[in-house]
Specification:
Blueprint lengths: L2 H16 L12 H13 L13 H26 L10 H18 L12 H18 L6 E6 L4 E4 L7 E6 L1 H8 L9 E4 L1 H9 L5
Parallel strand pairs: 1-3
Antiparallel strand pairs: 1-2, 3-4
Helix pairs in contact: 1-3, 1-4, 2-3, 5-6
Length: 210
């Protein structure tokens, strides 16, 4: 089973266990909303543009609510579990585009609950995430107000944020945790953050991510 499939299955199991009203780290979204988002992303390409493009966000939100009404929570979870859907069924594409998506959203649900612990990820998945952090750091940290130095536990350094920044913050953690940090989950990533208090506070509040 691929990592994308494993994360998908684990998230579907968690959806089933928690029910539709559990919190997530996606602001304003319950598990019901997140399940609808995942189904929309894979199966409604006509409405997926609003995920990244604000002018289209209204249409995307309406389609997401319609999916909740027509499919219900159980139906949406079944679709998540049975995926990938739509174009993502192209051989090899699921692993390329969904591994990170499902890992991040799996953690969005796990870490929004009262009790959770970080997972020990497979070594090859950690390597994959570190490569993604290094390749995407300019995009992930483009809205950072400070210079950021990422230190990967086990080896590796990546630097992002504005080059002319007068403040600098260092963030240390495993690759999966650094990925979550860069995806805007700063407060829930298991990392060590060091630097001037003001600079750290500014970074922790910044809208990081794609």
């Amino acid at each position: 089973m691929s990592h994308a499939s494993s994360e998908r299955a684990a998230l579907a199991d968690l959806f089933t266990r928690l029910g539709p009203d559990a919190p997530t780290l996606c602001e304003g979204w319950t598990t019901f909303d997140l399940a609808a988002h995942l189904v929309l992303r894979e199966r409604r390409p006509d409405a997926a543009g609003g995920i990244l493009l604000k002018p289209l966000a209204g249409h995307t939100a309406r389609v997401q609510e319609a999916l909740k009404s027509t499919k219900g929570y159980t139906g949406l979870v079944d679709l998540v579990r049975s995926g990938p859907g739509g174009l993502y069924r192209v051989p090899g594409l699921d692993g390329v585009v969904n591994t990170t998506e499902y890992f991040v959203h799996h953690e969005d649900v796990r870490r929004a609950q009262r009790v959770w612990e970080p997972r020990e990820l497979p070594g090859d998945l950690e390597e994959r995430f570190w490569k993604q952090v290094r390749a995407g750091i300019r995009v992930f940290l483009r809205r950072s107000p400070v210079r950021v130095i990422l230190h990967r536990i086990g080896g590796g350094v990546a630097i992002g944020g504005p080059r002319d920044a007068t403040q600098q913050v260092e963030v240390t953690g495993r690759a999966g945790e650094l990925l979550l940090f860069c995806f805007g989950r700063q407060s829930h990533a298991k990392v060590d953050v060091s630097g001037d208090d003001e600079a750290v506070a500014r970074l922790m509040d910044a809208p990081l991510g794609v």
